[in-house]
Amino acid sequence: MTEENADAQSSLNLFTQLVQCKNLFGHAHATLPSNRPDNIEGIYEVMGILGEGSFGRVYRCKHIRTGEIVAIKQIDFRYDQNAVPSSLIREVSLLRELNHDNIVRLLNVLSTETYVSLVFELLDQDLGRYISRNNGVRDPWIRKPATRYYRAPEILLDSSQYSTGVDLWSVGCIFGEMVTGEPIFGTKNSFDELDAIFSPTDLSYIFADLEPQGLHLLKMLLCLDPKRRVSVEGALKHAYFNDLPDHPRSRRYRLILLLKSLPVHNHLRTKGFILKANFQDHNDPATSSNGRVPADSLENVISCTPNSLPVLYLACSK
Amino acid sequence: MASLPKFFVPTFMEADAITRYYETESSFMPAPGFYTDLDNINIRRLAVSIIARIWTSEYADAFVPYLAMNYFDRFASRNPDSDAKVPLVAICCLTLAAKMRTNSFSVDMIPAGIYDFNHTTIRTMELRILDGLQWQMRPVTPFSFLDHVYPTFLHIAGFTRRCMNEI
């Protein structure tokens, strides 16, 4: 119970940090459309099924009056023993606050006795544009290059087991990047990436500038075995953060923000559907000046989201 | 160990965030005058007693009942007809708050006793509350300002980062 509370707390505290992202919350708390009917039948025409999951179905729909094409996710909780499911409450309340180009917009929430319909903007045009820009290349690694530097070994080895450990690895990579100013596993492809990760290196040599406690934490984050990697709570309690000289721009402070943001990212990621992939390709000079996330953007640590699939950049400031 | 500047000067972004908090905080408060109305004082008293009875110390998280009362006040101030259903509204606010904050909460954890509501009743009221609050279940509360006031506390009482991380 205590552990989960800590988790929930940190995501709540995150609001403090998230609200700083001006762009993200540009129109936060906009009111929902007021003429809200009881069902979607009257206003939307179902054009097809986009996807199906344990939660219910996602339909491609057309607004009968305006002709607007939307995606409607219907979540049926008729048989849920817990009344309105907590995942739904959290998902919707988060989505109500988020407003960013890289996050699918929630246009409306329609509720009935037994199910809730979430009306989202429809995204598939974006994906089409992306694929054409890459000349139809469908290499799965090319589709998610932005985060490759931060990808945990178990993901590179194609493990389907996904856990928060993956994010903590990424935090370790970013932590290292804050110190050296360069991606610590910045390689050309995932094979080199694995090679770099598994080659025996002495971290204390690379990170000679780092305090001993910081190095200790870094080693705990970059632990190859996901089961032995430190947890979010464990990392926050690490001696490195004791008696913090708490300058908001200090490395440690930013690291805390990053760690605290993980539960929210996690939550967003479990809803793969709601995230628009960010197609800002690090190797594409058109979208990035020097081929990687500029070190400045780590200033707003929150902006740098070491996520696996779909990449989510919350407010990447220039 | 670097020392903190004696007077904390927020950056533009931080100042902006705080301004935004002050702006949005009011949207997470009940209508003005809500707390001084005698009827409201009575229904709040009832709601607090119900919530306190259910959320005993065995559930460690003290923020849950706080959040529940935030939902309750906001909902009650905009739905005057909810007076007659105070117990149901209070319990549903509590279940919603618990679901926001913890992962293992189940509606069955509400002890059966004086108030027995079935799942359908609870679900219906939960949805009414969610709609009534426009699904904005993560309010800006005084706790949100902790990061901002922290440097001030630090100079007054030796308040450490640890205390804040624990909050």
Automatic annotation (TrEMBL), chain A:
Gene Ontology biological-process annotations: G1/S transition of mitotic cell cycle; regulation of G2/M transition of mitotic cell cycle; regulation of gene expression; regulation of meiotic cell cycle; signal transduction
Which GO molecular function terms does the record list?
Answer: ATP binding; cyclin binding; cyclin-dependent protein serine/threonine kinase activity
Q: Which residues bind ATP?
A: 73
Q: Where is the Protein kinase domain?
A: 1-241
Gene3D superfamilies per UniProt? Phosphorylase Kinase, domain 1 (3.30.200.20), Transferase(Phosphotransferase) domain 1 (1.10.510.10)
Give the catalysed reaction(s), semicolon-separated: L-threonyl-[protein] + ATP = O-phospho-L-threonyl-[protein] + ADP + H(+); L-seryl-[protein] + ATP = O-phospho-L-seryl-[protein] + ADP + H(+)
Give the GO cellular component terms, alphabetically: cyclin-dependent protein kinase holoenzyme complex; cytoplasm; nucleus
Q: Which Enzyme Commission numbers does its entry carry? A: 2.7.11.22
What name does the UniProt record give this protein?
A: cyclin-dependent kinase
* Natural source organism: Lupinus luteus (European yellow lupine)
List the top taxonomic levels of the source.
Eukaryota, Viridiplantae, Streptophyta, Embryophyta, Tracheophyta
